[in-house]
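Below is how a single chain appears once it has passed through the pipeline. First comes the sequence as given, then the structure the pipeline wrote out for it. We keep one example in the README because the format questions we get most often are answered faster by looking than by reading.
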Amino acid sequence: MPLRRLTLTVLSAAAVLAAAAPATAFPVPMPGVDTDPVPPMAVAPAGEDRLTVTVDGSGERALDGMYSLDCHPAGGTHRDPQLACDRLDEVTRWGADPFAPVSPRANCTMIHGGTATARVTGTWAGRPVDATFNRTNGCEIARWNRLVPLLPDGTS
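Resulting structure:
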């Protein structure tokens, strides 16, 4: 008898929760409507993916300076615009900012990756970009390396 009472209690609780849930919690597919919750990333119209990168303190004069990057189609003063655009396309995901800073709650190794700094500004995937990068700890180094070759590799 206790099992039957438990089953009824669980079923009753589930019914109450289902009735109290907002309508959007249980989407109903509609004919002819795409129900994919994560739409594919659209490529911005030509000329709208444009970034300016400023690098300083890399230890190599050839890597320091300011350069531009245009994507879709690739161009600008970047040393390898197609490779940089391809990498940005790889790391761009719906709902995630490829230029996001390291979380303040992240546990980072205390290693120093050099004095290089970079600032990236412009527009990517239809959104404004204004991000700074450094190599002061393991998290920042990983964040920097994730965007190589947009940011130069081989920094001191």
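The chain is about 25% helix and 20% strand.

See the next section for the split statistics.
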